[in-house]
Amino acid sequence: MTIDPLYLVLENSAWVERMLACGVKLIQLRVKGAEDEALRAEIVRAKNLCARAGARFVVNDHWRLALELGCAHVHLGQDDLAGADLAALRAAGLSLGVSTETEDDLDRALTLGADWIALQPIFATASKAFERAPQGLARLRQWRERLNGRPLIAIGGIKLENADAVFAAGADCVALISDVTRAPDPERRARDWLAATRRRL
Question: Which of these is catalytic: 30, 40, 56, 108?
Answer without folding.
Answer: 30
